[in-house]
Amino acid sequence: MPKKAEEKQELRTGVIYCGDNLDVMERLPSESIDLIYIDPPFFSNRHYEVIWGNGAELRAFADRWKGGIEVYVGWMKDRLFEMHRLLKPTGSIYVHLDWHAVHYIKCEMDDIFGMGNFRTEIVWWYGGGGASKRRWAGSHDTILFYTKTNKWTFNVDAVRESYKIEWTRGQKRADGSERTLKKGKLPDDVWRMHSLMPWAKERLHYPTQKPEKLLERIIKASSNEGDIVADFFCGCGTTLAVAERLGRRWIGCDVSPKACQLMRRRISKLIKEDRDIKIIGMPHDIDELKAMNPFEFQNYTIVDMLYGTCSRTKSADYGVDGHDHLTHNPVQVKQSEHVGRPVVQKFHSAVRREKRKKGIIVAFSFAKTAYEEAARIKLDEGIEIELRTVQELIADYYRRMGQK
Ligand SMILES: C[S@@+](CC[C@H](N)C(=O)[O-])C[C@H]1O[C@@H](n2cnc3c(N)ncnc32)[C@H](O)[C@@H]1O
What we know:
This protein is of the alpha/beta class. The protein folds into two domains: 5-153 and 189-280, Rossmann fold (3-Layer(aba) Sandwich), CATH 3.40.50.150; 286-403, Trna Endonuclease, Chain: A, domain 1, CATH 3.40.1350. It is built from twelve helices and 14 strands. The strands form two sheets. The protein has a nine-stranded mixed β-sheet with strand order 6-4-5-3-2-7-8-1-9. The longest helix has 18 residues, at 69-86. It binds S-adenosylmethionine. S-adenosylmethionine binds at residues 20-21, 39-41, 49-50, 206, 208-210, 233-236, 238, 253-256, 259, 404.
């Protein structure tokens, strides 16, 4: 498991994390986020809800819910625990689900957040759902709203509803004039808002894309300008785009590299100043990695792939470029092919100097002599020099996604 809360890095905003959100959240500092909205897979057993991208992503997800609802609930519970830890004491969370699992997740939320911190069950009536002559056709999703404590932000004036909307026409006066109050009606828990129409301008053809209007309502009500908004299942980045537009800071995460690229493009269009949106954890193809500048490459392998930390000082003399997250064992990164015996020998001295029993060298490939030297060291001194190729790290990345 990745490092626990206390040694975690500072929260960087304006960043998209590409990876399993559990791994990502475990690396973020406690009580640092004002508002979380999530729209996770609904346990609908329909592929589109999690699969969007290439074959590797598809394979990684195909078996996810094989164990049934218990597996799904356990999977969600681990993540909700982390979200609870990440919220500031004044923070709020909105969990978007539908009839498939909302009742199970409500129980988990009551456990994790406390029943007393449950605020509202919002019904999003999107209309145009399926039709049935045998039962009531589904036309809504459910959004659970909890707060971390009994102190929270709620900007009611920002989300008052106009009296002119269709379903309040009954409130017209006898002479036909609309009843209008300057401030508008206090909002309630049934939100009538159409899902994205095929012709909608904001449509990006992401299978489960939510309308910006929905997120606008949540973000305006439950955060202030400058606050930090997070979405850990952010798909094509609807939450992030709205947060950006409304002057909030944000962080996002999605396990799909394609989704991450898509949302980066979406948000970049909204940014006026010269600000680059970084995707952390994005797997690259091998040619790209070979062409990367050495510092970036080192960062990519140690931080993004091994979840480790890079050495602050350039310790090329020792050959230690960083440390792995779990054991703090030394790591050396070589942006080359056919790494041979001399590199292993030199790194072995560095591992000994750090009084460690294990170290990792990462490279594109290793010569036979490197493996022989590593085996000799293990036999003679019990020190393990693990030789890992970049290709293996990337394969591990996809495996982790599939197992979580
Ligand atoms: C329902 S979609 C979110 C759609 C989003 N609200 C939008 O408007 O585009 C759920 C997303 O969760 C992502 N996802 C599934 N499992 C994940 C995990 N373990 N970590 C991070 N993202 C995950 C999927 O790739 C998918 O993009």
